[in-house]
């Protein structure tokens, strides 16, 4: 199957070689399979908690990526488990490991990143995360900052009339993770930026009117930050 635009962008952001790449919440495993072809990992790990998905995926991997005894065949493993329980420390290496989490909300994404970091504390400097949340990116960015992570790269893309932020972060590095992003507003087309900002402002304004009182300050800050960016673009 052909990669979607979102998965194609994620694949393009993996431009280094890693000892281990973890394709989490991998669904049909399309991104991981593309990375296997790209040969950017010593071992590609596919992780999902749904047994049926993983059984089907294993069959496809055995068919299209048979693991022969020679060193030239692609190396992969299938893990049917909760992503929060990943133990990267069981796979020590001198080069970084990359964890890809896509297709879930920002709050769950932050919980998974936090759990993985905690379980692999001795490796925390050697773990990178490539994230593509479906919503709540402001909250996610806030929590990533609190975890001491830094920005490597970020992109704003559109697919099927929805906007996505792609975040490549790690403990190493010096670039702070901006609350609303920096290069998002310099690289993406202006029309896309304006449409995305207006959607975000509408969403956070509606949420603020609800019962999210425990997040009131964060929501007000999000609205203020996004409105300031919109005003700057339309000035």
Characterise the protein shown here:
- The chain contains 8 helices and 7 strands, in the order αβαβαββαβαββααα.
- The protein is α/β, with parallel strands linked by helices and 235 residues long.
- The longest helix is centred in the last third of the chain and has 19 residues, at 190-208.
- The chain is globular, with a radius of gyration of 19 Å.
- The termini are far apart.
- The model has no long low-confidence stretch (mean pLDDT 90).
Concise structural overview:
By secondary structure, the chain is of the alpha/beta class. It is 41% helix and 22% strand. Strands 3-2-1-4-5-7-6 form a seven-stranded mixed β-sheet, with helices on both faces.
Topology:
Elements: H1 5-12, E1 18-24, H2 30-38, E2 41-48, H3 51-64, E3 76-80, E4 97-102, H4 106-119, E5 127-132, H5 137-146, E6 150-159, E7 162-170, H6 184-187, H7 190-208, H8 216-234
Parallel strand pairs: 1-2, 1-4, 2-3, 4-5
Antiparallel strand pairs: 5-7, 6-7
Features:
single chain; 22% strand; seven-stranded mixed beta sheet; globular; alpha/beta; 8 helices; 235 residues
Secondary structure category: alpha/beta
Count of discrete alpha- or pi-helical segments spanning 4 or more residues = 8
* Percentage beta strand: 15-25%
Average per-residue pLDDT, rounded, comes to 90
End-to-end separation in angstroms reads: 43 Å
> What percentage of residues falls in helices of 4 or more residues?
40-55%
SS elements, strand count: 7
Low-confidence stretches: none
**Helix and strand sequence:** HEHEHEEHEHEEHHH
> Major β-sheet, in short?
7 strands, mixed
Radius of gyration (Å): 19 Å
Shape: globular
Task: Going across the biggest sheet, name each strand in turn.
Answer: 3-2-1-4-5-7-6
Assembly type of the chains comes to: single chain
């Amino acid at each position: 199957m052909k990669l979607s635009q979102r998965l194609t962008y994620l694949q393009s952001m993996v431009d280094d070689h890693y000892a281990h790449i973890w394709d989490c919440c991998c669904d049909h495993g399309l991104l991981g399979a593309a990375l296997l072809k790209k040969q950017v990992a010593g071992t590609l790990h596919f992780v999902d908690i749904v047994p049926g998905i993983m059984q089907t995926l294993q069959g496809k991997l055995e068919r299209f990526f048979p693991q022969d005894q020679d060193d030239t065949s692609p190396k992969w493993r299938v893990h049917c488990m909760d992503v929060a329980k990943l133990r990267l420390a069981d796979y020590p290496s001198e080069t970084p490991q990359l964890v890809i989490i896509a297709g879930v909300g920002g709050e769950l994404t932050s919980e998974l990143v936090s759990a993985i970091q905690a379980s692999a504390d001795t490796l925390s400097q050697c773990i990178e995360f490539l994230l593509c949340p479906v919503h709540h990116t402001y909250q996610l960015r806030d929590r990533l900052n609190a975890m001491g992570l830094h920005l490597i790269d970020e992109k704003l893309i559109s697919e099927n009339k929805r906007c996505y932020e792609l975040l490549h972060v790690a403990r190493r590095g010096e670039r702070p993770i901006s609350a609303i992003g920096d290069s998002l507003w310099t690289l993406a087309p202006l029309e896309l930026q304006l449409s995305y900002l207006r959607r975000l402002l509408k969403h956070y304004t509606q949420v603020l009117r609800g019962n999210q009182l425990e997040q009131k300050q964060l929501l007000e800050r999000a609205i203020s930050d996004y409105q300031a960016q919109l005003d700057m673009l339309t000035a």
